[in-house]
Design a protein that fits this description.
Blueprint lengths: L1 H20 L23 E8 L8 E12 L14 E8 L8 E9 L31 E8 L8 E8 L13 H6 L4 E2 L5 E8 L6 H5 L20 E10 L19 E16 L5 E13 L4 H4 L3 H9 L9 H5 L2 H10 L9 H9 L24 E4 L33 H9 L73
Antiparallel strand pairs: 1-2, 2-9, 3-4, 3-10, 4-5, 5-6, 7-8, 8-9, 10-11, 10-12
Helix pairs in contact: 1-5
Length: 505
């Protein structure tokens, strides 16, 4: 425990230093789950996914997806949203259960400016103002990136598996970025030497949740499958997706023989790190140096948001899963369960909540409820929070996927990894309330029917091919939250305000 607290203290000091130097504004969002990372938007993890590829013919691969930079307004130009060249973005894999990564995929970005004399930014009229390809000169601020794999055979510096790959621009609008997915989105999917694929760019924010209801002290508009409001509708997010052969992720470096084989389960999480020193010059230039310090971390959805207490949220973002024992008490007796009990008058399982520890921190062992061929167990006896994916459990065809994953009888879904199809908000609410077969005494309505009223993304069905997430929403298309004045205001009149502080016409 002394070593854990010592590491925790170092993490807090490093994060405080970084926060004091950061000048990047942040949107308040459901994804900005901790005080410090809420002020560092471009390093903020939002969601992580890990699943066997469901694209026909790709079942021998695992797709790993991590999203950053939450709630991107599609029309937020002229700079729009780019990867931060000073952040190290990583997807990490533990295949032995000790809470330490055995494999890392590292992504680093470089921005080029073609024309610094334009008043615009990511796009400009260097030729005709239309970005028709990834190499079009009107793509004025293109980004390229390098992908490294770090494992026991490569050493600390890793092995470059791809370099010079170009990200697509934001979906600015039909005049600047016509035929977006055909001309820019799909060409940014690159083939890797091992037969896998990689993509980095802007996508539709497919994670759906009624944020307003959840954080207004569970003032949900509905506690069922419909009736809620998708707060993230119309926003975009920055996505890194990589597809890897199964055997390159397992501890045996082979495809597991069965779902209960010792090498069948892998743990997956994403992180972002910054250098410990940033210097801002008098001319506005910024240079970074020093060691990398982890500032954001995302494995299972919603854990840091609704399980970890406020005083530990920043520290949790800085820690490796090897140190997660410090958070175990808050999983064993989560405050969210007590809030659900207080607000809805439901009965909840008494602590210790070992059912939640299995779902989020150790994995689910073979048991009578899920049967002899299901397990996500991966642990050395200590809790480690990350997604756990059993790569030997067969995929569920897209047409048969249940949004409720395991709770819907779909063993290929959450908490066996996480697919973009999985409604993790509803699943997590029911799990925390004890509305699952693992806690039979409380596996009754409304515990096992809870939801936030949003059960689908209104933008439409996911792509059936890598990278699965939908193309980004275009900037020159009004979102439903955009409002138009019904009448022009007479500015010759002295404005007055009502009792709510709002201007009267």
């Amino acid at each position: 425990m002394k070593n854990i607290l010592k590491k925790l203290g170092k993490g807090l000091v490093g994060l405080s230093l970084i926060a004091s130097m950061s000048s990047i504004p942040a949107l308040a969002s459901s994804h900005a789950e901790a005080p410090l990372i809420s002020m560092d938007r471009f390093a903020d993890n939002t969601d992580t996914y890990a699943f066997r590829s469901v694209e026909p013919g790709r079942e021998g691969f695992v797709t790993l997806i991590a999203n950053w930079i939450p709630l991107q307004e599609p029309s937020g130009g002229p700079q729009y949203f780019r990867w931060d060249d000073t952040v190290l973005y990583e997807i990490r894999i533990d295949n032995t259960g000790d809470g330490l990564e055995d494999i890392k995929y590292q992504f680093q970005f470089t921005t080029q400016t073609l024309n610094g004399d334009t008043i615009l930014g990511q796009s400009t009229v260097n030729e005709n103002g239309v970005i028709s390809s990834l190499n079009d000169p009107d793509y004025n601020m293109p980004q390229t990136y390098t992908v490294r794999r770090v494992d026991s055979s490569t050493g600390r510096n890793g092995r470059v598996i791809a370099t010079g790959l170009r990200t697509p621009p934001n979906n600015i609008g039909p005049r600047t970025t016509p035929n977006y997915e055909t001309a820019l989105g799909q060409p940014a999917v690159y083939n890797l030497p091992n037969g896998g694929k990689v993509f980095a760019g802007t996508r539709d924010e497919y994670f759906y949740i009624d944020v307003g209801g959840v954080f207004d002290t569970l003032n949900l508009r509905s506690i069922g499958a419909s009736g809620g409001v998708d707060t993230t509708k119309g926003y975009n997010v920055s996505t890194i997706a990589i597809e890897v052969p199964i055997q390159e992720l397992t501890s045996s470096r082979a495809v597991p023989a069965s779902p209960t084989a010792s090498d069948a389960v892998i743990g997956v999480w994403a992180t972002s790190s910054r250098r410990t020193m940033r210097v801002i010059g008098f001319d506005g230039t910024r240079t970074s140096s020093g060691a990398w310090q982890q500032v954001s971390r995302l494995g299972n959805p919603l854990v840091n948001e609704v399980v970890i207490p406020l005083r530990l949220k920043d520290a949790f973002n800085s820690l490796s899963p090897v140190n997660d024992a410090i958070a175990a008490p808050f999983v064993l007796d989560p405050q969210l369960a007590r809030l659900l009990q207080a607000v809805y008058g439901i009965q909840i399982p008494p602590p210790p909540r070992n059912d939640l520890v299995q779902i989020f921190a150790t994995g689910i062992p073979v048991n009578a409820v899920t049967g002899p061929n299901y397990t996500t167990f991966l642990s050395d006896g200590v809790p480690h929070e990350y997604l756990r994916l059993n790569v030997a459990i067969p995929i569920t065809p897209i047409a048969s996927i249940s949004r409720l994953g395991l709770l819907g009888g779909d063993v290929a879904g959450f908490p066996n990894g996480r697919r973009p199809h999985d409604d993790v908000t509803d699943i997590a609410l029911r799990a925390v309330a004890g509305g699952t077969p693992f806690t039979p005494a409380t596996n009754v309505a409304p515990n096992n029917t809870l939801g936030d009223g949003v059960s689908a993304n209104p933008e439409g069905a996911l792509l059936t091919r890598f990278p699965y997430l939908l193309p980004p929403n275009p900037g020159n298309t009004p979102r439903t939250s955009n409002q138009t004045l019904t009448a022009e205001r007479d500015w010759t009149k002295v404005p007055t305000v009502d009792e709510n502080g709002l201007f009267k016409q």
